[in-house]
Structures are given as structure tokens and as C-alpha cells.
Design brief:
By secondary structure, the protein is mainly beta. 4% of the residues lie in helices and 38% in strands. It has 3 domains: 167 residues, Jelly Rolls (Sandwich), CATH 2.60.120; 151 residues, Jelly Rolls; 151 residues, Leucine-rich repeat, LRR (right-handed beta-alpha superhelix) (Alpha-Beta Horseshoe). It is a single-pass membrane protein.
């Protein structure tokens, strides 16, 4: 259902963050591949990304004179089809975050850049293709707003085998906590927002960003010499829900007298879908007002909108757009209509996550092991096609882990007792590794059919409860250092294919 909302500004001062001050709450500015922290021209500190990611290789670009120092290094990841390489951050579970990754593979003379997927927690966000920007010698920036699903958030790059023959890369990543009112009309329980355009109309200057914008949102200039006007006052209010920076109201596009103002904006064609649209207005004359209608693609967006010098905003949470979009402002008073700024976001569904019980169990398994696969970060199963290496999932009413196969992967450590909480498992294999310690009690694995733990360094005894798993059909324990007696309920199970020898010191010795 379409919802239209408006906000009128009061004259309350909006102060930008002081120079050198970090963003509020859990916020991160990462210079990917950098060996040490750097400070940019805005006095913002960018930290190395290594503490937040466990995979990839840092590489410096052989370029001089880059305006953005974070473009001078990148982190590259292997092309392993179906693997996702994740950054993980502590976050506040009650907040929303702007995520802004930056990609710059080098100039047109460098090798063609790869294409790959972006994933946040278990949600597919978008595909990254930087080829066009690379030909223009510019970086590619993507932006989205996501809710925190828990006390940590994962941002992942997925190696999609359908795209290119090389692995993902990234140069910089911003994760910035936003205030509660910002974009709060969107139902973030079901949707996230991907930025299409954020524009400062009438501006001929640089991109508006931090410190003018408290969240370092990028407001792109939209010059138009025929209609551009600069105002002589500032809108300095925090009462706009989305907290736009005051400076975006210092320029405007104003229609000619007795004529509508017609804009093609955003400047790219859009897929037929629902979009979040926010438009910002402030009269360029002090203590003045004007009234006009706002149409988008010949549909009434807002009727009889009265705009004063204090400022006003109008937005829709689900407005259908398709193809090229026209914004038409038609006067209803003596003064012509105007517009100062606008934002358009695409809406996309929040993905499902692995059931919490299974996700926590796998995290415990991971902590008890060494040398686990480097893609064991983020959601274990989702999105579809991006399960952890060795993990097979079933997507039903609940998303469950049904198979765990880490055979011959060079892992060591021990088997966590929490593995028994993966109650949907049918197959479990750690064969041909260097695991030590005992086999934990697996009685809760009531669907387990195959247990392959052979050729490790496991010790201890076989618990009798293992023989009480009625579904068990294969049990391979040979090549370990186990002792004691093999339970009779295993030896007498005619439906079980088992191997206990050689290697173990069982007494009495079971049949081979």
C-alpha cells in the first residue's frame, strides 16, 4: 500500500560532527588492504580492514596522485565458485546502518575487473560490475540501508561462477550507524533499501558529504544553468525525518514564471518495481511561501504542497516506477515551483537466515577447530548458493543444516559437544584430518545416517548412546587412537556398515 508522508521543518540547529570526531555508535571506516590507518582530507580516520576479515590478499595499486587515498589499496579474494568472503562487525541490534563499499580496480590499462555479488547477513543485495566506471577512470560506489539482524553484521562478497573468471575485490568499506528517524517509514523487518540516486538540485560544486552530512551520505550535484538558484539563507533543522544536511537547501531549481518545472530524474531507467522517493523543498526567499503540485510520471505525488523558507519534505515508501522518470512541479500560486534535493531507493526483501540453533552450533564447532575454511563467516546457509564450504542446507519452513563434510581439509582441534544441536544432520564427516579429543555425545542427532570420523587422532571411548541412533547406517572410526569396548548395540546392529580397526585399541577386539 502506498504511503505518503510529509515533514515540515522548525528552526532548530543541526550541527555537523566536529572535525576529527568519529561517527556515532558502531560505525566503521575501512581502508581495505591498507597496512596502517590513514586520515583523509576531511580528518576522517580510515582503519585497516585486516581485523574484520579472515580471507583475501592485500594489494597496492601502482597509481599516483589519487584524490581518494583509500583507492590506493585493495583486498582480493580467490575465485572459488559459491564462496562468500565476509567482513564481520559488532553492531547494535536495534539500529540501522548505511553500508557503502567502494571498488576501483585501476585504469583502463589494467586487467578487466571481475563481477561478483554483494551479500549482507543472509540477504542478496546486488551484483557488482565496475567495467563502465573503470573505462571512465572512476571508482564505483554502492550504498544500501540495512537493519542489524543481531549483535553482529556480516558484509560479504560472493564469487558467482556465472559472472567472470576472477575473484572479488574491494577498496574501501563504510558501515555507518544512522539515527532512528532516518528512513524510518520503511518496514525494515521485511525490506532493505538500495540507493538509486541522491541529488542536490541546482548545485555546480562538489559532492555534498561529511562533515555537512552527519552520515557521510553523498549528495550529487545536478547543474542546470537555466533554472538554478542559490538561496541567501540556510535551513538548519533536525525536524526533517531523514536529517538532510542544511547545505542541500542552499541551491534549487526554480521553474520559469507560468511554466511547470520538468525534470528527468533519476537520470537512468528503472525496473518496474516499488521505490522509496523523498523530495526536499525550501523557499529561496525569507519569510515566503509558494504552493504547487508534485507529479511523478503523470501521477499525483502530492497536491497543493505549500513550501516555506523553513523547509519541507515529501516522501513515499512504496511508489511504483518504471523506465525513465519525470518529476513535474506545477504552480498553484503566484510564485513558480522549485525543488532542492531528492533521494530514490530501490526496495528489496530481507533474506531468511539459518535457524538460530544451527547457526550457534556451527559457531561453536568453528571455535573448537583450527584451519576452518576461510568462508566460514556470515550466515552458514544463506543466501541460496552461498552456504559455507562443507555445509549443505535444506530450505523449508526453517533453514536447517543437513550435512557437514569437512573431510581432508587439514583441520585440527576437537569436535565441539554443541555439534549435537545440529539435529537435522543426516551426514557428518571429519575424515582424514588431525582432530583429537573424544567423540561427543551425539544422541540428539536423531536423523544421522552416516558418521565418518576415520583417520584422525581421536581418543577416548565410544559412548553407548551412539548405538541408540536408530537411523545410523554407516560408522567409520578406523585410524584413530580410541580405547575401551565397542558398545554391543553397535556390534549387533545388522543394518550398520562399520569399521573400527585398524588403529584403535578396542578390547575385546571387534571384527574387522
Amino acid at each position: 500500500m502506498l504511503r505518503l508522508l510529509t515533514a515540515t521543518a522548525a528552526l532548530l540547529l543541526l550541527l555537523p560532527l566536529a572535525a576529527g570526531q568519529r561517527f556515532r555508535g558502531f560505525s566503521y571506516l575501512l581502508d581495505c588492504g591498507a597496512p596502517a590507518a590513514t586520515t583523509d582530507a576531511r580528518d576522517l580516520r580510515w582503519d585497516p580492514d585486516a581485523p574484520y576479515v579472515s580471507a583475501g590478499t592485500a594489494r597496492a595499486l601502482p597509481l599516483q596522485g589519487l584524490l581518494d587515498p583509500t583507492l590506493g589499496t585493495l583486498r582480493e579474494f580467490p575465485r572459488r565458485p559459491g564462496a562468500k568472503y565476509c567482513y564481520e562487525f559488532p553492531v547494535d541490534p536495534n539500529r540501522r546502518y548505511i553500508l557503502r563499499p567502494t571498488f576501483f580496480y585501476g585504469t583502463a590499462a589494467s586487467p578487466p575487473p571481475p563481477a561478483f555479488d554483494l551479500i549482507v547477513d543472509g540477504t542478496f543485495w546486488t551484483a557488482v560490475d565496475t567495467a563502465a566506471d573503470r573505462l571512465a577512470g572512476s571508482a564505483s560506489r554502492y550504498e544500501a540501508v540495512f537493519p542489524a539482524a543481531g549483535r553482529s553484521m556480516s558484509f560479504c562478497l560472493g564469487a558467482n561462477p556465472n559472472y567472470t573468471e576472477s575473484g572479488p575485490f574491494i577498496n574501501a568499506l563504510q558501515v555507518i550507524q544512522i539515527d532512528d528517524p532516518v528512513y524510518n517509514a520503511t518496514d525494515f523487518r521485511t525490506s532493505a533499501m538500495g540507493l538509486i540516486a541522491r541529488t542536490k538540485f541546482g548545485s555546480t560544486g562538489q559532492v555534498e558529504r561529511y562533515p555537512d552530512d552527519s552520515f557521510d551520505r553523498h549528495w550529487q550535484p545536478f547543474p542546470d544553468s537555466k533554472h538554478a538558484v542559490s538561496s541567501t539563507h540556510n535551513v538548519t533543522s533536525v525536524d526533517f525525518w531523514n536529517l538532510p544536511p542544511p547545505d542541500v537547501f542552499n541551491t534549487a531549481l526554480v521553474a520559469e514564471q507560468n511554466a511547470p518545472l520538468v525534470l528527468q530524474w533519476p537520470p537512468i531507467p528503472l525496473q518496474n518495481d516499488s521505490y522509496y522517493v523523498a523530495l526536499y523543498f525550501a523557499d529561496t526567499l525569507d519569510d515566503n511561501s509558494r504552493t504547487f503540485d508534485v507529479n511523478i510520471n503523470d501521477y499525483r505525488f502530492y497536491e497543493n504542497l505549500t513550501v516555506t523558507s523553513a523547509g519541507h519534505s515529501v516522501f513515499a515508501t512504496q511508489w511504483i516506477l518504471s523506465g525513465l522518470t519525470r518529476v513535474i512541479l506545477s504552480s498553484k500560486s503566484g510564485l513558480p515551483p522549485l525543488i532542492n534535493a531528492g533521494e530514490v531507493f530501490g526496495l528489496f526483501p530481507i533474506g531468511r537466515l539459518t535457524i538460530t540453533r544451527d547457526a550457534l552450533a556451527l559457531e561453536s564447532v568453528k571455535r573448537s577447530l583450527q584451519n576452518t575454511p576461510d568462508d566460514w563467516i556470515g550466515d552458514p546457509c544463506m543466501p541460496h548458493g552461498y552456504a559455507w564450504t562443507g555445509v549443505t542446507c535444506q530450505e523449508g519452513l526453517n533453514i536447517r543444516v543437513i550435512s557437514l563434510n569437512l573431510s581432508s581439509m587439514g583441520i585440527s582441534g576437537s569436535i565441539s559437544p554443541e555439534i549435537a544441536n545440529l539435529t537435522a544432520l543426516t551426514d557428518l564427516s571429519f575424515a582424514n584430518n588431525s582432530l583429537s579429543g573424544p567423540i561427543p555425545d551425539l544422541i540428539k542427532l536423531g536423523k544421522l545416517e552416516r558418521l565418518h570420523l576415520h583417520d584422525n587422532k581421536l581418543n577416548g571411548t565410544i559412548l553407548q548412546t551412539l548405538g541408540r541412533i536408530q537411523t545410523l547406517r554407516e560408522l567409520f572410526l578406523q585410524g584413530n587412537n580410541m580405547t575401551g569396548a565397542v558398545p554391543q548395540n553397535l556390534l549387533n546392529n545388522n543394518g550398520l556398515t562399520s569399521k573400527f580397526l585398524p588403529g584403535n585399541n578396542f578390547f575385546p577386539r571387534p571384527p574387522r
